[in-house]
Specification:
- The chain is mainly alpha-helical and 245 residues long.
- It folds into two domains: 64 residues, Orthogonal Bundle (Arc Repressor Mutant, subunit A), CATH 1.10.10; 139 residues, GntR ligand-binding domain-like (Four Helix Bundle (Hemerythrin (Met), subunit A), Up-down Bundle).
- It is 64% helix and 3% strand.
- It has ten helices and two strands, in the order H-H-H-E-E-H-H-H-H-H-H-H.
- Pfam families: FCD (PF07729), GntR (PF00392).
């Protein structure tokens, strides 16, 4: 896992949250533009994007494309959170949760998807296809998150959308790490893309069971690429988990 990136994101998010709490950025005011924040903190635009998304997940800011980030509250909402510095054991737990949640979301999406939903998924897949040979893992992360977000949106269930969006944003660094690993192995990016396509195809043809299975298989594959040590699906005992950090 890219600890340096995760640490930078944590540092910037914590500093921005502190500035908001002190009133430097008042409720109702906008944060400085991303490029200005990147210059201020001496980090990349990707780190700023992840830090502000962390703040959004905490309920501190609201972001809209083209409008920047507006401060919503001085203190974040308490509740379910995923640590950005999760070790393999914690990530394994989260991936198990994601397999159940996203499997269910995929099944709902297969029943409820609209032409607009399918178009959004296709757009993300096209972006991912264009990044297959890009040596920069960051190039595909946005499209990867967008694809999973489009599947969640196709459920037309706001609760699914909000929870899955939160999990995907918090685990963005894990997605990057998985893609870094994929780039080291010839043909692996194409196989990962095939997993996405299989999920899309099942949703497009309205196959709820197939979509559930494709989503679960994709996330289990992602967990394997992160070496999280998830047990086999038919394992009867949690004592068999290989959670070595």
């Amino acid at each position: 896992m890219s600890l340096r990136t995760a640490t930078l994101t944590d540092q910037v998010a914590s500093q921005l949250a502190a500035e908001i709490a002190r009133g430097t950025y008042a409720v109702g005011a906008k944060l400085p533009a991303g490029k200005d924040l990147a210059s201020l903190y001496g980090v990349s635009a990707a780190v700023i994007r992840e830090a502000t998304e962390r703040l959004r997940a905490q309920g501190l800011v609201r972001s809209r494309q083209g409008s920047g980030c507006m401060v919503l509250a001085r203190t974040g909402a308490a509740g379910f959170q995923v640590s950005a510095e999760a070790d393999r054991a914690q990530l394994a737990h989260v991936y198990e949760l994601r397999m159940e949640l996203e499997g269910g979301a995929a099944a709902l999406a297969a029943r409820r998807r609209t032409p607009a939903d399918l178009a959004a998924m296709q757009l993300a897949l096209e972006g991912l296809r264009g990044c297959l040979d890009d040596p920069d893992p960051d190039a595909a992360v946005e499209y990867d998150v967008a694809f999973h977000g489009a599947v969640a949106a196709a459920t037309h269930n706001p609760s699914y959308q909000r929870l899955l969006q939160y999990l995907n944003l918090q685990l963005r660094h894990a997605v990057r790490t998985a893609r870094q690993n994929s780039l080291r192995h010839a043909g692996l990016p194409s196989r990962v893309q095939q997993e996405h396509v299989a999920l899309f195809d099942a949703i497009a043809r309205g196959d709820a069971d197939g979509a559930r299975g494709a989503a679960t298989a994709h996330l289990r594959g992602a967990a394997g690429r992160l070496e999280l040590g998830l047990p086999p699906i038919d394992s009867p005992s949690s004592s068999e988990y290989g959670y070595a950090p």
